[in-house]
Each structure stands twice: as structure tokens, then as C-alpha cells.
Design goal:
Number of strands: 8
Low-confidence stretches: none
Order of helices and strands: EEHEEHEHEHEE
Radius of gyration: 30 Å
Helix content: 25-40%
Structural class: alpha/beta
Mean pLDDT: 90
Distance between the termini: 50 Å
Strand content: 25-35%
Shape: rod-shaped
Strand order of the largest sheet: 2-1-4-3
Number of helices: 4
Largest sheet: 4 strands, mixed
């Protein structure tokens, strides 16, 4: 892609000063006072007198809204806000718990504590029932264990994917309510 020789470089962030394309803007000064609609050139000069830049804060308004701000500080604050939002967001993961159809009570209780912990942390849980040898012909035993898991977690979780066979495994997915 060829750029025209006098075209401005592509920008990221808000337009400011001579990059504002609108002939008129609604101006708000550095103290938050509305100065009304002004020609863009006059607004840039007024901002320069105060030692600040004219920054377009609402480009889709008619006419666009521009403020007297320090561009560097404005971009820095926006970047800091975006980083904080990215840091605090929780990504939902899928945790997996593997069981066997003839699981013992104590082992079942231990696995259930983990399932409840994962769900309260906001993660989805994939419960995998693995069959070996002759256990495959007794699918109803695995189904009974998965039904027991679903009933035990019905207060805190909902069944997102009901138990289904995939090869030698039976899968069920639980998600937080």
C-alpha cells in the first residue's frame, strides 16, 4: 500500500491539534467549562495559549467534542486503565476431573471437593468417566456416578453438556450458575 507523500502517519488513540478533521468543534476547557462551538483553528490556538493540546474526546458527536488536555498524559492514563481492566478480567478455564465407574466413596468425596472448588472459582468442569476392559459393557454404572455428580452440584452448577460416550470415555460438562 503506497501512502501519499503529504498524508499524515496512521494514528492510534484520539485525534489532537492539527489531526482533527472537523472544521468546527464543541470545546471544553481544562477546568471543565463549556466554551461552545468554535472553529478548530481558533480552538487549537486557545489551547496553545494555556499550554495544552486540543484533544477530540467524542468524535462521533455533531459537532465533535474536544477538550484542552495534555495528549501524552491522556494517552498514558488511557493505557493504564486498559491494562488494569485486562489484569482484573477472569478468563474461564475448563478443568478436568477423571473418574472410574467403580470409584470408592472416599475417592469420590475427594474428587467432589475439587469439582466444587473449581466451580466456585468460576471455571467449567469436565467430568470424564474412563472405562477399561469389561467396564465398557456396564455403561449404566458410569452414568449413575455422573448423575450422582450432577445432583451433588446442582446448587452451584448447571449441566452444560449431558453425559455422552466418546470412545472408551463418558463426558459431562458442568458450568457455574
Amino acid at each position: 500500500m503506497m501512502r501519499r507523500p503529504n498524508a499524515p502517519p496512521p494514528m492510534n488513540g484520539p485525534r489532537f491539534n492539527e489531526f482533527i478533521q472537523s472544521p468546527k468543534v464543541r470545546v471544553i476547557d481544562h477546568e471543565g467549562e463549556n466554551l461552545g462551538v468554535m472553529f478548530t483553528r481558533a480552538a487549537i490556538e486557545a489551547a496553545a495559549e494555556v499550554g495544552l493540546d486540543l484533544v477530540e474526546v467524542s468524535p462521533n458527536a455533531d459537532p465533535p467534542v474536544a477538550k484542552f488536555l495534555d495528549v501524552g498524559k491522556f494517552k498514558y492514563e488511557a493505557q493504564k486503565k486498559a491494562n488494569l481492566a485486562r489484569k482484573t478480567q477472569k478468563t474461564q478455564e475448563i478443568k478436568e476431573i477423571k473418574m472410574r465407574p467403580n470409584i470408592d466413596d472416599h475417592d469420590y468425596d475427594t474428587k467432589m471437593k475439587k469439582v466444587e472448588q473449581f466451580i466456585t472459582e468460576g471455571d467449567k468442569v469436565k467430568v470424564t468417566m474412563r472405562f477399561r476392559g469389561r467396564e465398557l459393557s456396564h455403561g449404566q454404572l458410569g452414568m449413575a456416578v455422573l448423575q450422582r455428580v450432577a445432583e451433588a452440584t446442582q446448587e452451584i452448577a448447571k449441566v452444560e453438556a449431558y453425559p455422552r460416550m466418546e470412545g472408551r470415555q463418558m463426558l459431562m460438562v458442568l458450568s457455574p450458575k
